[in-house]
Amino acid sequence: MTAQTNTTTTTTTVSAYAAPSAKAPLERTTVPRRPVGESDVLIDIKYAGICHSDIHQARDGWGEGIFPMVPGHEIAGVVTEVGSAVTKFAVGDRVGVGCMVDSCRECENCKAGLEQYCLKGNVPTYNGLGKDGEPTYGGYSTHVVVDEAFTVRIPDGLSLDVAAPLLCAGITTYSPLHRWQAGPGKKVAVVGLGGLGHMAVKIAHAMGAEVTVLSQSLRKKDDGLRLGADHYYATSDEATFEQLAGTFDVILSTVSAPLPLDKYLGLLRSEGAFVNVGAPEEPVSLNLFSVIGGGKTLAGSMIGGIQETQEMLDFCAEHGLGSEIELIDADQINEAYERVLTSDVRYRFVIDTATI
Length: 356
Description:
single chain; alpha/beta; Rossmann fold; 7-stranded mixed sheet; ER; zinc; EC 1.1.1.2; metal-binding
């Protein structure tokens, strides 16, 4: 359905794909979009990436969800209308929306540009409640209304289809690599070469670091080297952990399965950091001597703030970094979910929302 907008009082109904209940297949439906407020932009969504976290949430893997659920927090599109007070964007601008669409904007984290860690809780792009108490619906839809403060500009150097996954996979990997100063003279390992991992390799390489991929097998070795990795090792080979002991300044884990952390921490140099951006559904175990010995850091990172997300997009445009994608029609979403679970995607499914 084509969005018909009234900027004052009318709620718009748009076409979308939603999971009607936990673990149920996604199906075509319609969802409401709020009127365009004075600080809002109406976005004609062109592409929406499929993130593994969409599957976790649509299947209640991270806790009880809000249904019907329209996933999608990797949104790329074009502004078709702006509110009266909007100053950042104009009709026709190429824009993106990531994992959150609001925050309190008043706490110390929000004021520091860390809206993702809002002390009152940010408003997720989907599977959340807006400040109006209404459920949020994500990017598997034709249009979305978002406050300009949580909208970012997609540089002309990036096509919208390969830019869409950057709104989660890009910022999720860029932020910790930037924070832990990946660059010349630093040795960075990326655990897993999937939707997140392949962007981590590209970004760390562009930052100037020496990059190693640690994957279960050597099946994707040629891809890893093509994307910018200097080295590629199989973690199924125990010799890997002996050969690489004490090697890395930063290890970025992008996998959503629990890892034997003590073994991986042994790969760090003294005062190195093991950073988790993948989020397993199961708890993990740890012997604290693995971090005490060597003064190592076990850390986590969640997306990035709005300013840093814009910085990431500009960086990716400057270095010609888009996601490696497989473009699909909306009626292939359920099949794509199953293929993600078996790692049968190189490296991000992106929905052509014109097919919704």
